Automatic annotation (TrEMBL):
Entries under Gene3D superfamilies matching the protein: OmpA-like domain
Alphabetic keyword roster: Membrane
Annotated GO CC locations: membrane
Record-annotated OmpA-like domain positions: 1-42
Species in which this protein is naturally found: Candidatus Thiomargarita nelsonii
UniProt signal peptide: none
Lineage: Bacteria, Pseudomonadati, Pseudomonadota, Gammaproteobacteria, Thiotrichales
InterPro entries: OmpA-like (IPR006665), OmpA-like_sf (IPR036737)
TM helices/strands, residue ranges: none
Protein name per its UniProtKB record: OmpA-like domain-containing protein
Amino acid sequence: RGVSKTRIKIYGHGNEDPIAQGKSPEALAINRRIEIEVGPVGHSLKAGHPL
C-alpha cells in the first residue's frame, strides 16, 4: 500500500525559484510551499511541464 520511495523525487527550489521577492513574513509564507507533480510511470518531467 502507498507509493514506493523509488518513485518519488524531491527537489528544493525555495531559494532559487521564489514566488514572492523579499524577506518579509508575507513573502516567506508565500515561498514556504510544496509542489506535487504527477506523471506517467518511468517518465521524467521537467519543472513547469504541463501534464
